[in-house]
Design brief:
2 copies of one chain form a homodimer. With 471 residues, chain A is mainly alpha-helical. Chain A has 22 helices and 5 strands. A 3-stranded mixed β-sheet of chain A has the order 1-2-3. In chain A, strands 4-5 form a two-stranded antiparallel ribbon.
Amino acid sequence: MSQPKRERERSVAALVAPDILELLETEPGSIAAETEEFHPADLADIAEALPRELVPRLLTALPSARAADVLEHLDDDLRAELLEEMDPERAAVFLALMTPDERADALEEMDEEVADEILEAIPEKERVETERLLQYEPETAGGLMTTEFVSVPENQTVEEALAAVRLIARAGRREAMNTLYAVDARGALRGVLSLRELLAAPEGSRIADLAWSEIVTVAPTADREEVAQLTSNYDLIAVPVVDAEHRILGVVTVDDVIDVIQEEQTEDAQKFGGLEALEEPYLQTSVLALLRKRSPWLLVLFVGQMFTAAAMGFFENEIAAAVVLSLFIPLVISSGGNSGSQATSLIIRAIALQELGARDWARVMRRELVIGLVLGLMLGGVGVLRVILWQWMGLYTFGDHYFLLAWTVGATVVGVVLFGTLTGAMLPFLLKRIGFDPASASAPLVATLVDVTGVVLYFTVALLLLRGTLL
Amino acid sequence: MSQPKRERERSVAALVAPDILELLETEPGSIAAETEEFHPADLADIAEALPRELVPRLLTALPSARAADVLEHLDDDLRAELLEEMDPERAAVFLALMTPDERADALEEMDEEVADEILEAIPEKERVETERLLQYEPETAGGLMTTEFVSVPENQTVEEALAAVRLIARAGRREAMNTLYAVDARGALRGVLSLRELLAAPEGSRIADLAWSEIVTVAPTADREEVAQLTSNYDLIAVPVVDAEHRILGVVTVDDVIDVIQEEQTEDAQKFGGLEALEEPYLQTSVLALLRKRSPWLLVLFVGQMFTAAAMGFFENEIAAAVVLSLFIPLVISSGGNSGSQATSLIIRAIALQELGARDWARVMRRELVIGLVLGLMLGGVGVLRVILWQWMGLYTFGDHYFLLAWTVGATVVGVVLFGTLTGAMLPFLLKRIGFDPASASAPLVATLVDVTGVVLYFTVALLLLRGTLL
């Protein structure tokens, strides 16, 4: 992947930050005008590049609505810190200017007592709205949704609806208003139409005649992944969240869905690497927190690997009798780990994208059986050749029975690759079945599981093939 | 992750497909009416669940515009096959009804000769548009963009622009029209405004006074990842694509960006698992294609692991003198692979999300040095305890020098974990530096690199600590 953009952007923020720094120290009054044309996301990047103690001064130098925009784009932790440090009255002013979903997210990240104090200082309408959003778990549709959406009574005419929309637009509400929700007298969602469809509608027609009846909705308790899946499946820019009576509670907008997709993917990638998912970006995670996320799995895997040592101990006499056998142990067992890692990464991702469901395990097993066997025969063949060629070319002396040794290595590799492939492919299904996250089937876990089996298989094959010769 | 939705959806498609199947055989004329309320994405799911030979019959049973909608949501390969089989005139009708970007994508997937024949049969306006889109590489902004967007002259008044937008909306163009692009007399992009802002604008004002001047644009040759990054950074629902003269060529819409994000992540996950990225979903990839994607890396890694065998051969005399040493080889080397896998997954993902740039390598190295050392000391300590406790508890007899053996294992684990962590963390930076994809630093590659070093380190430490005793 290429990342030209971010490189550029980082340097823009890095380039502009010193200028802003100078202005903050000499002419703070000119900052608002100087940065007027900046996108709030860029101003947030600049704020993050400034020395930490100057960020509050930057926010003070901006008009409140602008500062609230910058806060919306700021890193979660930094935002929580800044708001906690402020006078609660002032924090309340900024929060009231933020979109309802970002406001709730910001409060969620803060110390609870401080958050309560700030919430008290927020105007009643916004406070009630925020308290309603705060009752939902952050990882659900309710926790993601915003309450800024536009609903129109279905019995209105197009002109009435358009006039109402205009009024709302002029009132300066900020969330996207591209989709309108038609509701009946009880407030139940009856249809969805785009602003464009409203504009295209013949004059005098009623909303009920226009609004599409195919509506995709979610419950507020739905997992955020379900929301992401719907958005991606149906190419939506907003998903309405409805209660049991089909009354619309809010909407989840596509920008938040993109964040969800990226966060979920990051979690899966980190789990597959064999650690607990981080809550913050790498550089913002302390060394101590990184150790806490990484050490438990490493210890579990280390203890798991001790079974390999135990298995090897069981065959100590065979190793003593034929030391040459031990030379190929890492080669043999790693081939199982590698083929298992391939299969696991394929299956975990296919399950995450919902290309594979729990019921597809048997189909996957049949395919992977063939693939594991062919891959095993390929690698096993190379293994056999390696031993024979080295002996012939005089690169190494494996003794009189090098041919049998070659067959031992080759046969074991076939078995280990087949076993590794099947273990790697089936483990995610098994974990899902017993209620765990299939993404926990990490590459190191598969490798560790396969290593023990590899050792046992290797010496068993050796005992069968080499008895009476080397053993 | 939980996947309740897709489970449900799969069963809906599976449940409904037999009914559709029956209707296709008994009353094909009623299908259009029976499925009228279905979302095209759902109808596409149903089509995919039908026996392959019946899919063309389903398309025939639907009105053309509806069939075109279903084709837009269908799996790429199936769609290409269906269109190739059709009479070119008929395929041209469907293609002309599709959005320009989907039309170009569909032609891109087809056999070139058939595609040319179909293109000939498409009405001129749509054909020219499509040919323009086809000149861009599929993985660039130009390859992703649609040419259906609405631009308004900046010197128009709000009323004129609104009337023009209404006309376009009534003409039934289908792509999202939520964003309007203000252009000057030369056609250069001057500003962006939402339909909502147009509605909110005071009557009589001119577009030039409304349109924002902060415009985020990309070149048609920009990598699709850059488009995804801009969309996600600035919370956009469409990114305008402009030429060198800043004239707008098209827009990339957010639904395509979501697909890009998911595809890129799938590629990265598969590469990290140690295989070449697949072009199609797992179940649609043939066993032969899977073997082609998986065997090259497995062979490379297998050959790489042969160096471990060579390294072990170098120490054959030491193994023969102290067989007990060999028992801990898998344990010792795997601890390096596991800690390397953790570090690599963290760094690759942070680079993909552009949280880390090429210049951050030294900072990362300093952090990982501390982390690797602490993790190494933890695991090494457990390793020392393992040997000593097993000996004391009589679980295994390592001989008189078990204490020295314990220290050999412990010291090696510290070194191997530290080396594995640093290798895993630095490899993505190194790959990026020399022009490769940092995501190629797969878990198996890191493990293989670390294994050879682990073996050498283990026997070097053993020679230092056990000389005169075991060796």
